[in-house]
Every structure is written in structure tokens, then in C-alpha cells.
Amino acid sequence: MVAIGPAYAQEPSVPTPVPIAVADSSDNLAPTASVPWNPPRAVHTHEPWEQAINAPLTLVSLPIKALGALSEAGLLRVQEEHQIPRLQYSLAVTARSGIIVGVGGIEDGSGLGGAVRFTPPRTHGWVRGSLAGTLRHYHRGIAEVGPRWLVASYVHDWRPEESFYGIGPDAAESDASDFALQAERIGLRLALSRGKRWPRELEAWVGERRSVLRPGKASDRPSVEDVFPSTSATLDVPQIYRMAGVRVALDTRTGRPHWSRGWRLEAQAEDFGTVNGDGLVFDGENDSPGFRRYSLAGQVGWSFMRDPRTLRLIARVVDIQPRDASRPPLLNDLSRLGGGAGLGAFEPGRFHDLDLLLVKFAYIFPLVEYGELEISTDIGAVSGDVWNTTRIDQLERTYSVILRPRSHRAPLGSIGVSWGREGARVRMSLGGVE
Amino acid sequence: MRMRLPGVTLVCLLLVATVTRTGGATEAVEPAEPAGPRTTEISYYYDFVRHCAARPIARQLDLGREVRRLSGNPRQAANVDANDQVQLPSTWWTPRLGFRPVTVDQMLRGPGPGTGPAPGKLIIERAKSQGVTPGFFVKDSAGTAFLLKFDPTALAEMATGADAVAACLYWAAGYNVADNAVYTFTAEDLELSSKATVVDKKGKKRPMDRDDLMLMLEHVPRGPDGRYRSLASRLLPGRPLGPFEYTGRRGDDPEDLIPHQHRRELRGLWAIAAWTNHIDVRGPNSLDMWTTENGRSFVRHYLIDFGSCLGSAATSKREALAGTEYFLDYQVIARQIGTIGLRPFAWEHAVDPDLPSIGFIDSDTFNPGNWRPEYPNPAFDERTERDIRWGARIVAAFTDDHIRAAVARGQYSDPRAADYLTRVLIERRDKIVRRWLSDPAVTADRP
Description:
- The complex is a heterodimer.
- By secondary structure, chain A is mainly β.
- Chain A is 12% helix and 43% strand.
- In chain A, the strands form 2 sheets. Chain A has a 16-stranded antiparallel β-sheet with strand order 1-2-3-4-5-6-7-8-9-10-11-14-15-16-17-18. A two-stranded antiparallel sheet of chain A has the order 12-13.
- The longest helix of chain A is centred in the N-terminal third of the chain and has 33 residues, at 48-80.
- Chain B is an alpha+beta fold.
- Chain B folds into 2 domains: 44-108 and 240-443, no CATH class; 116-236, no CATH class.
- Chain B contains 13 helices and 10 strands.
- In chain B, the strands form 2 sheets. A 7-stranded mixed β-sheet of chain B has the order 4-7-3-2-1-5-6, sandwiched between helices. A 3-stranded antiparallel β-sheet of chain B has the order 8-9-10, with no helix packed on it.
- The radius of gyration of chain B is 23 Å and the shape is globular.
- Classes of the chains: A mainly beta, B alpha+beta.
- At the A-B interface, helix 1, helix 2, strand 14 and strand 15 of A face helix 1, helix 2, helix 3, strand 10 and helix 8 of B.
């Protein structure tokens, strides 16, 4: 036993419970050059009996060890050849030339993909372009001109496998189908933000859109016209909309690595005006079913402790009002739930209807320095009229547990599982996490 | 039958390979004249992945370890005598504080002489290309070679101070370290060797010119007198063989017969690392040197690079949680999930001293029973209480005067910084002593 008195801090109170055999008996404090003590033979990492009981697992692990050895050699080469700095340099050079390469999909359900953004040098950022694509053959191209607060843009979208199960909250899972959407959009957008204590955002836009519904391209489900024959008349018909919209928001959210305090209120109104035949920019056929879309969204967060444990309440309501009640919007313009849009346990596009109501309650807490966990529940439903026909017994619920890798500044992505009435679904994203 | 033969042969070969790889019972070591072992290198990336992810899983699947755990019979260090002390001589560690009287002056002299480069011009041989901080390899007017390392721009004195202080403490604790000293110079003191090289941003090695030098110095903090501050680390004698691992043995060193994770000096290092918050204690921050002394050539094992020690994280200050969890800490994750995050982390009560030259280190939230490096260290994973008490005995032997003198090696311009670091080290030492040496229940003879 070692007895340490309170004086140890003042004197060299070396506890000397046992004499120590100092082979190099000189008073020299320098390291010895003598032959070091060693046992007569090499000591095993494991005792023989440990090796014996571990033998089966050792055998099984041999391929993994081989893989590890290969990885080690490869990673050592990366280090010795300075390949990481070289890659960083290459990315920095391409960034200086205005090209930024990124990884990520085009919204939920479009599959893993990548994007290239291009801002030509010497344009002061007034000219921007991007191309994105995914392994499921989704594509999106964007060209923008103008300062950030006033942007003229052209967008081309190809979404070949959009899920559709029918209209309404009772749409059957067995009616799975898909459609493709080809859309082009040109417009002018004004975006202003002001205020520090009460940050305010205002956006207004006008433009024209041409959209064409096509038969779905998914190989694992029938196309929409096979399951819902009434939709066949809307396929392959280019339709033009004149669009105008306004969005205002108040945003007091703050916090790192995720926003943990404050609230955000957002209201948006859009008008999709009917165009009969050709538009100002795009060619179309027939007259499009015009409609107005109103949405209201609110978020509020409250956190406690230093590494924030955060409670969040998020609500969103969307109300679509067709100009002609007998001509509802096309499938791609309906409100929808499932996947990243809400009710994550359901496939993206699982529910379609005019309106939707979604409420999400989430709790986010830290796991380790570079990871946090979100447990949440979504409650919501689509309906024909969110104010009058939404019934509590029609609300769907899903529950989620999401791991969110994070830096000290922000969440970096998410991976997790959501489950609900129709089973569980693994969800993953790179970026795009608040 | 013929079809099965290759399979049987393969299994036999695998069995042989397994036994050979793990050091079979019949393995004997041929006595041999020590030849210069080959130079090795550790991949930082592989080391990180291996010890963060792969090895913790393998440890959980280690049935032998589990049997030992359940039976309360952990494997003790393999190089201790009947009195539970390190068998000497050792090329890893020398008994100093805790085992022999070491005066403050002896500690300050350390591996010696502790004065940095000789006055006069410094000739730059090449720029440092590894690690996270910039630096130069130089020779002083006496022809002695040094590595000069610098502080991050916004945190003057932090990394250099930590390196100087910690090297002093680790030497006094018995470990082999380089002779480190804070050293200041002007740009005019530096000259480029005609053979000086630098690895540029493209990752290519090329001749170094004055522009490269001035570009690197642009980011080096200067003192009020305009001089650049550096940590001058005297290059170690001998031929560098690369870092050692905290696990396994160096196969081509006939004097390395004990798996490193079963060495008392490396297991017990945990206590000193905990005291000094050296969360960066890992293979890549070590160095084996092929040394010839007294007509004998052998491998000597050094701890190097203390720039990520105490409150410094080399390029930034330490996070408050440093030392409380691994980068990927399954135990902490499990606890957090089990309590849905409602149990506060100890570090959440930490108060930042707001001393840029110190970074962040505190004693209030320091838990001497559960300190952890940045990612698992194999030797620390195998430590038993006997190993920790061995290390704690060394920590206990540092007097306040030793600590104050070691901190003075950091040459902090702000006296509050030196006072703070001294106080924190004293309080952390006291906590270690109380936890590991004062409690009779702990010091009872149990693993």
C-alpha cells in the first residue's frame, strides 16, 4: 500500500513501497545503453489457451485482416505521396476557376448523385450554373444570372421515377405506380433579407413553367396509366403555367451545431395561372389547370445544457385551391407526403392530394463530439381540404431515429431509420440537415 | 475426395498462418547480432480507423479477454519483477521521478542541454512536410540539427509552450524525449541551404527558396520584439526507424520480445498522459532510433511531438471535452442513448480560462479515473490498476517546484498563463494521487 501524505506536493514525496532493482546503478539519469531486460523467449500477445478459444474467430477474421493490410498499404501510400494535400490543392484550383464538385442527391428518393456548380471567374458571382445527376437517372440543370437578390434563372428538371399511389389519405400501398416529369422553368426572383434581431426575408418571383408528365420509368412498378387509367389523358401533354409568388419569413433561429433556439414563421402564396397553348417562352398544348397554393410553416426550438439538447416543434400546412374545381392540378403539383417531405417511414410520394397537414416533434441530443441523435415523430395527412376534411383518425404517424454526424459548426448529414404503419425505411442524406 | 483436398490444405495453411502470426507456443527467438532494423512508417489514416473502429470491435470479440474479465484476472504487464516494478534496464524508460531523486535543475536540463540552437545563423535544410503544424529542419552555427515548429497564427505561444513544458515533464517521468526549448529568431537569422527542399501545395517536393520561407513565416506569430517564436527540438541521435506501435512487437528488433501493449512503461504512461491531457498519445507521435552508444547498437524508443498536449491541439485550442471521450466512443454513445442525453457531460461545466497561450485545460472537470485519449491506445486498453498506480507514483513525485519550473520552460509572456497552467497541473496531480494512491481500497492488491 502506498501512503501519500499532504506534503507530497511540497517535497519529492516519492512513495517507495518497494525497493526497485536498478540494474544500471549509476546516478546518471540518462537513458541506459545496456542490453535491456528481456524474457528468455518472446512473449505472446495472447496466452496459448486464449489463442485456442479465439482460433475460430481468428480464422474467420483472416480475410478482414488481409483487407486491413491492403488498406494500410494503400493509406500509407496516400500519406507518403501527399495525395490528400494534392487533392485539396486540385479542389482549391478548380474552385478558383469557379468549378465546385459535390456529392448528393436531388431531393429525397432520387438516389445517390453528384453535382457540379460553375461560377465563371470575373463575373462577381453574377453568373452561376449547376448540373446534378443521380444513379436513378434524375437530372437537374440550373442557370442563373444576376446578383443574389435579383436572379433570372432557367431550370430544367427530369424526374423519371416519381411514385404515385392515388389521391387521398386512403391511397392503397398496393396501387404503387410511377410517372416521369419533365419540366422547364424560367423566371425572375427578388430576394431580400433584413434585420439582425428579427431577421426578415422577402422573396417574390414571376415566371413561366412548362411541364410534361410522362409514363414512369421505374422497372419495379407499373407506370401510372396502367394503375390509374384516368391519368393517361394527362401524359405526354406539355402544359404551360404563368407563375407568380411571394414568400415572407421571420427567422430568429440560432445555435450551433444545430439551430437550437428561436423560431421561424414562413408564409407563401403562389399562383399558377392557366395558359391556353403556347406561353411567352415555352410551347404548350391545351390549357393548363390553374391553381393557387398557399403554405404556412412554423418552427420553434428550445434547448438546454451546453451541448444542446433541443426540442423542436415543426408544423406545415399547404392549401391548394384549383381555379376550376373540376380540373385539379396535375400529379406533380399536388401536395405530397412520404420520405423527406414528411412521414419519413413512407416512400417518397406515398400520399398525394390537394392539401396537407404535417406536425413534427423532435428531440436532438449529443452522442459524442462529432455525432448527435434525433428522435422524432411525424404526424400528418393529405386531404382534399385541410381546413374542413382532415380528420384525426386519418393522420398517419411515423417515428424516426436518425444519427447526425456533425462538425462543431453544423450537422453534416444524416442516416437513420423511420418506421410506421407500412414498415420501416432507412433514410440517408449528405448535407441538407438543419 | 480430390475436390476436398485443396480446402483441407487451405485450412491447414490458415491454421499455420494463424499460429505463426500470433506467436505460436513453440516460437523461439534466435540470438542474433542486432542489425539495423528497417525503417517503418504508420499511416495516420489507417491508425485512426484501426484504433477507432476495427480494434474495439475485435476486442469485444476476444473470448480470452472476456474470460479474463469475468474471472477478474486481467493480464498483467509482462516486464515487471516480483515487486511489480519495471524490469531494468529498459530502452523505453529510465527510472527518474518516483524512483530516484531528480532535482529541478536536473529536470530542466533534461536530455540536455535544453538551451536550443547555438547563437548565430540557422541553415534551413528542408521544410517539415508531416504533421499538422509547419516547421523547418535547421542546423545551428555549431552544426547541431534542430526541428523548428511554430504556433498557430491566432494562438501565439500555445503549441510551442505545450511542447516545451510537456517534454520537460515526460523526461522527468522517465521517458525518452527530444531536447526541446522555446527559441526566438528573426528572418535574418535564417539561411537556406542549397539543398533545402519543400513539399509544395501540389504535394511535390522541390527546392525551397526565400519566397517559400517568407510565405511560411507570414503565419508565424511574433513577439513584441518582432522575433519569431518557435519550439526548437534537437534531432535525436542515431538513425530514425519510424514510429513504434503501442501494440505488437518490432519483428526485426531482437531486443523487442514483449508485445508493447503488455509493457508496464506504456500501460502506465496512461497516468502521465491523463495528468498532462496528452490525448494525442499514439503511434505516429513516437519514434524509434537506431542508436550506437558504448559500442553497442540498439533501438531506443522515444515519445515525440507534444504540441498537442496540455491545452493545445497544435492548430487550435483543445475542446473542453478533450480527455473525456474517444473520437468514436461506444461507451459514451451507449450511455447517451440510455439516458437520452439527459445526463450532462462533465465537461459541460468547464470554464474556459480564456488564455490563448494555454488553450484549454482544466482541473475542475478532470476525472482521473476515466481519462481517455483522442482514440483508443492499445497499451492503455490493457492497463490494470497496478499499471496505473505505477504511473500515478511518478505523477505524485512531481513537486510544486518541479511543475512550476517545467511550466516556466514554456516562456509564457502572460504571467496569468503560467500561473494558471501551474495551478491546473498541481490540481490534476492531486486528483490522480487521491484517486489512485490514497484510497486503501484502491491500493489493495487487486488488478
